[in-house]
Amino acid sequence: MSDAVVDDIVALLPPLLRSIEALDFVARYLHPPDFGEVMRLAGEPETELRAALPRLAAWPDTFAHLREPLKLAGDHVVAAFDGLRAVDGGDGDLVAVFRALRHLPQALEALYPLAATLPPLSGLYLDPELRADDAVLARLAQPKHPDSGVFHFDNEPGSRGGFSFYVPEDYTPDRAWPLVVALHGGSGHGRLFLWSWLRDARSRGAIVVAPTAIGRTWALMGEDADTPNLARIVDFIGSRWSVDPRRRLVTGLSDGGTFCYVTGLERESPFTHLAPIAASFHPLLAGMADPERLRGLPIQIVHGRHDWMFPVELARQAQQALSAAGADVGYREIDDLSHTYPREINAALLDWLGKAD
């Protein structure tokens, strides 16, 4: 690698990583009344990134395998900030904020193939607490299993009903792996939501599947085509990879969290654990569930005290109703959480899943 290319990478990666970290901060702490303050705290790390990106244009095609992912990720990050700055300046609404933040998982997807090549990018896909863990680093330094990595099955952007999934690089078929099925929020897409979980799955060892709803959102009313689709997806993964039948978690955000109840309380549900996050709830969900299915069913409810879409009282009611019906319910109320995904909860959920008998 030429000195000029090395210099360009050294100039580009720090502001790119800082910008991704800032977008992650906005996505986690977004609360409509505090949007301006959240943007102020995020700073302007993309300014330095904008200045460094043009340097990629001078790279010869022999480095296209590095140049193209870095440019694509950088462009997504800049586009995200452009959208957020526009709303912060009074041009746009909350929908525009969510649209801008969709560039963040697209940047993470673009960079992921370089994680094995550029060590700073490998850290981007590890829990910060484990980035210096010798055992984790040694595990990831081993040759990548040919059936591992990120895969997409009929799940191109804009499509419905497909799924994306991640199998850890150190996968081996001689052990049974926990399975996490993560359901996106309303109008979301599994290909984007996968990146809410990949870092923790890679850090701790779990297979993660992120399906896309068949309709605009999950089948919360009317005919339920999503539950049989999820069952087919679980069967597909289990037929090709070694999945622990005692550790199959369905979790999700917002509408995805609500659908955890709908599909997870079904008598024939393939899931052993439920973790609805920022979900709506109606007591009829517990009342209509099969009593045998509910008895002892492990459920973790996660909700933000400042949730503006589904008030926290709904989660408290869910905990009471499901506990009274016989489920084994844990409840986590996060003081500084609005209606966003608390990625820090993933490690705790995996620890909980790992304690299954």
UniProtKB/TrEMBL annotation:
InterPro entries: AB_hydrolase_fold (IPR029058), Plant_Biomass_Hydrol_Est (IPR050955). Gene3D superfamilies: alpha/beta hydrolase. The keyword Acyltransferase does not apply. Transmembrane segments: none annotated. Keywords: Hydrolase, Signal. GO terms for molecular function: hydrolase activity. This is Phospholipase. It comes from Rhodopseudomonas palustris (strain HaA2).
